[in-house]
Design a protein that fits this description.
It contains 24 helices and 22 strands. The chain is of the alpha+beta class. Strands 1, 2, 3, 4, 5, 6, 7, 8, 9, 10 and 11 form an eleven-stranded mixed sheet that branches. The protein is elongated and about 110 Å long.
Length: 805
């Protein structure tokens, strides 16, 4: 009996080839999108879950005053907390820097992490070679990731004991880490002993014992059963007591962030790798369900419509003695057969689309056909098939044979209302995604193209070079293609110092928190930052260089330049601020006055997702004086490989042991919005798919309805109706439904888009045009889709439809 059900089901599917193809295509696309997004969401939610002790490991995030949490903490913090709190069993630190690696005849610039000896007790990566428990135990230990081992030694095996020279010091390879197959928030780079960080990266050895110098990411391992909330309050009090009064910050707080929550559910700066977005992952999960619902609605709508044509078949079967249960099983078996075929087709689509999806989202998802996947797919297709087949199965099987054979089923108001309601539902989802996609794209375009307060075109930045800066600059400026050269503590796209406080000299009680950027000469020229009033730092003024006198703070010297935001906060206009005196200092630093010599326009140092901070610029007479770290070069035009090669040769002639490596500011700027760009692209792709799935379903339904009215069309044409009139008649039946769908969903779209835009400091106005465009585009899709069917029907020969009447 079961075999007979499926034989009949297969024959019915083959009889309606167009409708079957449309049903399979729409449902397969929907299931494929659901599987892809589900895999992506599972990947995003899996970060750090593979570490064996992940549930007991926490990262310490530092909050100063009301600022955003940051992952960088004092170097001494981990040991202090481990020694003084029983619930903290151990701590480990990760500090980042860039070093120069020499191997054979090559000189390389390499990002490294300085880690404690117990690093692999926290993060148990698999090793190709070496012992994780002892790999970082010696002061000259060196652990390489698999890719770095191949880079330096052309192999990831047989290299234990080999050496690399890092910043002039010889290190011995003690381990090679296998490339992890799981997602995690640790940077995969060369690892050096944490004790070497002070030697290689700290300009002042005293900073290692400071409570206010933050240079390391600290992780702690808690005892089982420890109460993180109460412990968090206790360690924050401990930190507050020791750091209070040492800087301009008034309050300190330490957050304990669970290792498994770091990627999606924290809003922290200065992390080891860029964070994901829990909000966007949730949004994509909802979109996946919406697209699957669209496909199911398509399938149900077409299945219901197709069932109406089989009314006489039902009547004959019931007249011959078929029971209601047999008819229900027959219809459900057909629906399940179709959804199973669609599920198998979806697997093929996922397999083909996965490489492009990985490239789009910069992930490495793999398609593994497993028993779990098969069971989930069978369950999904069975549910969809049963739900889609329920209405036609139970409705048609409940009619009397006499009514069915008279064709009464074709005029059922319940069936008409169901199909119309499903069309409204489809276009409502499509309209919601269209408005969201337009709003997100316009907002992202706005924040990426709004004035940033600096000119990022044609500028490269080089990390380091303080020792050779003056000579390097003089030689570069002889090149007619070089416009300007400067050096600074930080550059646009990098974070600024945030621990300074300024006051008006005539009101020292009113403190303003500011960011600061020590710079060399020509910084504003190099970055195209406009001076609104006053003058730039100049060698003609010997007192411009900033120098603090710790023996007599009041005799500290140096001029300062402020940005427009600070001038406004101080109650001054740009012209008014020039010549005024500002008081700096606080905490352990005594107060000292400095004259404002200029006001510059605001510059967004990081992304425009945060407000421009009040900023001061001070002049470092020599790069080493104020720890300038970034050397910047502006070119007059496009810089080709030969020009960059000349720069490299000049660099290496002055510092042969230091690798020449650079980044374009334009590339660094783009990286600030890489996650948002990928997510908006993914939203665009799935919005397009939603529209396509909706159009596919509408096409099938229009084709079916038109076929039902073919005799009506023939008679109208004989009576004189023109092609345009007939097309309008067929198209117009869907116009009201499309408009109704937009009217019903646009209030929800408005509410969601308003809340999302309110999360941005710099944002577009509510894009009401998106709602209009969504409605017009929905109508256009409906018109074009239906018009293809309508035009063919309107131009058909009437005699073909009426020859048997």
């Amino acid at each position: 009996m079961v075999k007979l059900f499926f034989i009949v089901a297969w024959r019915n599917l083959c009889r309606e080839k167009l409708i079957t193809a449309i049903q399979l295509a729409g449902l397969a696309i929907g299931i494929a999108c659901f599987i892809l997004i589900r895999q992506y969401v599972a990947h995003e939610q899996s970060y750090n879950l593979s570490f064996s002790q992940a549930e007991n490991i926490y990262r310490l995030d530092l909050i100063r005053d009301q600022n955003r949490p940051q992952a960088l903490t004092p170097l001494r913090l981990g040991d202090e907390l481990t020694q003084n709190f029983d619930d903290i069993l151990a701590s480990t630190r990760i500090s980042r820097s860039r070093v120069t690696v020499k191997h054979q005849q090559g000189v390389y610039s390499q990002r490294v992490q300085f880690v404690d000896s117990n690093y692999f007790e926290f993060f148990d990566f698999d090793f190709i070679e070496g012992d994780p428990l002892t790999a970082m135990s010696g002061p000259s230990s060196l652990v390489l990731p698999e890719e770095a081992a191949i880079k330096y030694f052309a192999s990831d095996t047989g290299i234990i004991g080999k050496t690399l020279t890092v910043n002039g010091v010889e290190f011995q390879v003690t381990g090679v880490v296998k490339k992890p197959a799981f997602a995690h928030t640790m940077a995969e780079t060369m690892l050096l002993p944490g004790e070497r960080f002070n030697e290689f990266a700290l300009a002042n050895p005293d900073w290692a014992d400071s409570w206010t110098f933050n240079a390391t990411v600290t992780f702690v391992k808690l005892a089982r059963g420890a109460q993180a909330a109460s412990l968090q309050a206790n360690i924050s009090d401990y930190y507050q007591q020791r750091a209070a009064g040492l800087s301009s910050y008034k309050s300190y707080w330490l957050n304990l962030e669970g290792l498994t929550k770091l990627h999606l559910y924290t809003d922290t700066s200065r992390t080891l790798i860029p964070q994901g977005s829990g909000v966007m992952v949730t949004a994509f999960s909802i979109i996946a369900v919406m697209i699957l619902l669209l496909a199911c609605v398509n399938f149900t709508n077409l299945a219901t419509a197709a069932a109406m044509r089989r009314g006489k078949d039902v009547g004959v079967r019931k007249s011959l003695g078929a029971s209601k249960l047999q008819l229900v099983v027959q219809y459900l078996s057909e629906a399940v057969l179709q959804t199973t075929l669609a599920g198998l087709l979806a697997l093929v689509l996922v397999w083909g689309a996965l490489p492009y999806f990985n490239q789009l989202m910069d992930v490495n998802l793999s398609f593994e056909f497993s028993a779990v996947l098969l069971v989930e797919l069978l369950l999904l297709t069975s549910i969809v098939g049963v739900v889609a087949g329920l209405y036609p199965a139970f409705y048609l099987s409940s009619l009397s044979p006499a009514l069915v054979l008279k064709g009464v089923v074709n005029s059922s108001p319940v069936g008409v209302m169901l199909r119309q309601g499903l069309i409204v539902f489809q276009f409502a989802i499509a309209a919601l995604l269209l408005v969201a996609s337009l709003g997100v794209n316009w907002q992202m375009s706005y924040i990426q193209n709004m004035p940033q307060g600096y000119d990022r075109e044609g500028v490269i930045v080089i990390n380091g070079g303080a020792d050779i800066y003056n000579t390097f600059k003089n030689q570069l400026l002889r090149n007619p293609d070089v416009a300007a050269v400067t050096m600074s503590h930080t550059v646009p796209t990098k974070a600024t110092r945030t621990s300074n406080v300024v006051r008006r000299a005539d009101n020292v009680n009113d403190e303003i928190q500011v960011g600061s950027n020590p710079v060399s000469y020509d910084f504003f020229t190099t970055y195209g930052i406009q001076i609104l009033a006053g003058r730039d730092f100049s060698r003609d003024f010997s007192n411009d260089a900033y120098r603090e006198n710790e023996r007599d703070w009041k005799s500290s010297t140096g001029s300062i330049i402020i940005n427009e935001t600070l001038a406004t906060a101080l109650g001054w206009g740009a012209e008014q601020a020039v010549g005024k005196m500002l008081t700096l200092g606080g905490g352990d630093d005594g107060l000292h006055n400095h004259q404002v010599i200029a006001v510059v326009e605001d510059s967004h140092y990081i992304s425009v997702k945060t407000a421009v901070p009040a900023m001061i610029y001070v002049l470092s007479g020599e790069p080493q004086e104020l720890s300038l770290r970034w050397l910047s070069v502006r070119f007059k035009g496009a810089a080709d490989a030969s020009l960059l090669g000349e720069l490299e040769q000049t660099w290496l002639s002055l510092s042969p042991d230091q690798a020449f490596t650079y980044d374009w500011i334009t590339a660094e700027f783009s990286s600030l919005y890489r996650n948002e760009s990928r997510q908006s692209q993914l939203l665009n792709v799935f919005t397009l798919i939603a529209v396509v799935v909706t159009a596919i379903g509408l096409f099938g339904l229009a084709a079916f309805n038109t076929r039902r009215r073919v005799k009506e069309i023939a008679i109208r044409k004989i009576l004189g109706a023109g092609t345009a009139q007939l097309c309008f008649m067929l198209v117009n039946q869907f116009s009201v439904l499309v408009v109704l769908a937009n009217v019903l969903v646009l209030p929800l779209a408005y509410w969601l888009l308003r809340d999302w835009l309110n999360g941005f400091i710099y944002r577009i106005d509510m894009p009401y045009s998106a709602f209009v465009l969504s409605t017009l585009f929905s109508l256009l899709v409906a018109y074009v889709t239906v018009m293809v069917i309508a035009y063919r029907a309107a131009n058909a020969t009437p005699v073909d439809a009426l020859q048997y009447e």
